[in-house]
Specification:
The chain is mainly beta. It has one domain (about 5-70). The protein is built from no helices and five strands. The protein has a five-stranded mixed β-sheet with strand order 2-1-5-4-3, with no helix packed on it. A hairpin with a 7-residue loop joins strand 1 and strand 2 (about 15-20). The radius of gyration is 13 Å and the shape is elongated. The chain starts with a strand and ends with a strand.
Length: about 70
């Protein structure tokens, strides 16, 4: 499967672009999680959740912030 360029919207990573894998339909995977930055290096950081929301006219896909999980 090819890699697809996505742009994150909302949350702490707003505006960041990254590359994700495509699913069997050729669209980006429906959900990605990223580690949040922790102030305490010994703490386990929460995971930021972004879900696929749609394709932009420039060929990138948008992923919207939906929350965090610990």
């Amino acid at each position: 499967m090819p890699d697809i360029r996505v742009r994150l919207r909302g949350g702490p990573q707003d505006g960041q672009e990254l590359t994700v894998s495509a699913d069997s339909s050729g669209k980006p995977i429906p959900r990605i999680t990223l580690p949040a930055r922790a102030r305490n290096p010994e703490a386990v950081p929460p995971r930021l959740i972004y879900e696929r929301s749609g394709e932009n006219g420039d060929g990138t896909w948008e992923f919207r912030y939906v929350g965090a999980e610990t």
